[in-house]
Structure formats: C-alpha cells, structure tokens
Design brief:
This protein is α/β, with parallel strands linked by helices. About 35% of the residues lie in helices and about 15% in strands. The chain has a single domain (about 1-210), classed as 2-Layer Sandwich (Nucleotidyltransferase, domain 5), CATH 3.30.420.10. Strands 3-2-1-4-5 form a five-stranded mixed beta sheet, with helices on both faces. A two-stranded antiparallel sheet has the order 6-7.
C-alpha cells in the first residue's frame, strides 16, 4: 500500500509526505572528511564529555524534495504532535481550497481504498472531508494516539504506517542520512544545542536546492527487466538466461510408476 502511494498518490491529486525522527545523536566526535593542510590530518580527542543528545524531526515531500526539519533534545508526544500539526497545517494552507463535493457525493470510498491493504486500520468518523494528503509514518504507539489520528482525518490526511521491520519503506530515512552526514561528519560537537544548530542549518541549505526522490527509480526498472529475462533454478539463487529443457526420456522415466517384482 505504501509503494502504491509513492507511485500513484500524486497522480490522483493527493500529496504524499513522509515523517520520521532520527537520532539520538550524542556529543562525541563523528568520523568524516574535513579540509586539512597536506600532511596535517584532522585529529579528534579519544575522550569526550557526555553533555546530552539531540534528535531530528523531518517532514519530507519526495516529489519535489522539500524538507521541513526541527532539532530537539527530547521527542515525547507533547513535543512532536504540536510541531507536526503546525507543519502540516502550513503545507495544507499552500494548497488551493478543496472543491465542495456535489450533492450526494461520497468521499468515503476513497478513504476506504487507502485502508484496504492495511492489516489493522482505525474506524473512520461518520463525517469525512475530502482526502488531500497521504502521510507515511513509522509504526510507533505515539503516532497512533486518538488525538493525532482524529486531527489528521479532520484535515483530510490519511496516515499510512510502515509495518514492523519495514522502516525502509519510509523515504525520510534516506534524507535523514544525507542531512546527518553533511552536518556532523568530521565534527566534534560539545553541546546538544550545537548539534541542533548544525542539523537545522544543513536542512535549510537542502531546502534551497532540493533534489526530488523517486521510489525505485530507473535502477528498479532495470532490475525488474533483468529478472524477467532470467530463469530461476531450484535449490539456490542461481539463474540462467535460457530455460533448461528436460530430456523427454528422463521425464518419462521419472513419471513412470514403479514396478515391484517378486
């Protein structure tokens, strides 16, 4: 269902955004490249003070690469939910006003269509607005709180939760690795505030020249064509480019019923 949202959601007039939180990132030296004079490599201390940790909240739009990020030291529900509601409200405010449904129009089938592939789905309210956005979230208890889910539905947002051990379906994981590597690689932060400042500055720089993300992309298409051109063999992961024909005599021998002689 999440792969279908990536491929078909935007074509159906629905925004597809991803949310995830990265971290915690402690105050310690981080490996990475740095600009140093030749013969004078960068040196990092072997000892450091544990002054706290920082986390990164990311709201990502894969179609155009837009990123909304915020650094925090802790991320309970009373910190996450207000920020998420605020950012989603700003995203929806940039959209044109939704057209009113004609008399007798029913928007429920569209909501139920995006619940059809879920193993566990929540009960939809009686009164539903027009569906405007698909939000991909991790399968955490705080993301399923009734207050947050009801707020999302009231604003036309359908939450889609990644399954257990399926966080790789959330494309926010990729943008987080890029931001963290650029912000903390080769650095030696001494406070959580410094980590937050670097992460947010890197996220703002990314948003100035964003790069769109595509699910699978051309490599996935090439891999699919390659698999279609190959023939798998039983017993292992071996493949052939041409099917192996079985000898008719051997097939007849294998399929002939056994004869028991006395």
């Amino acid at each position: 269902m999440i792969e279908c949202a990536y491929r078909e959601g935007e074509t159906q007039g629905l925004l597809v955004w991803c949310y995830d939180q990265a971290g915690p990132y402690p105050t310690r030296p981080y490996p990475g490249p740095s600009w140093q004079p030749q013969g004078e490599p960068a040196r990092q201390p072997s000892e450091y003070v544990r002054a706290g940790t920082a986390k990164l909240l990311t709201l990502f739009h894969p179609l155009d690469g837009r990123l909304r990020a915020k650094g925090v030291t802790v991320c309970p529900n009373h910190v996450l939910h207000p920020w998420l509601k605020q950012e989603l409200s700003r995203v929806l405010a940039e959209l044109p006003e939704p057209e009113r449904e004609p008399d007798g129009g029913d928007v429920r089938p569209l909501w139920e269509r995006w619940q059809a592939g879920l193993q566990v789905h929540f009960t939809l309210p009686e009164q539903l607005p027009r569906l405007r956005m698909l939000l991909i979230l991790d399968n955490l208890t705080g993301h399923k709180s009734p207050d947050l889910v009801l707020w999302l539905v009231a604003h036309g947002i359908m939450p889609l939760y990644t399954p257990l051990s399926g966080s790789w379906l959330n494309m926010s994981e990729s943008i987080q690795r890029i931001i963290v590597r650029r912000a903390l690689g080769g650095q030696d932060p001494r406070s959580p505030e410094a980590i937050i400042e670097w992460l947010e500055a890197t996220a703002r720089h990314w948003s100035q020249h964003p790069t769109p993300f595509e699910w699978g992309g051309k490599r996935a298409v090439r891999r699919m064509r390659s698999r279609q051109r190959r023939h798998t063999l039983g017993g292992s992961g071996a493949c052939t480019h041409h099917p192996i024909r079985r000898r008719p005599a051997l097939i007849e021998q294998w399929t002939r019923p056994c004869q028991v002689t006395h």
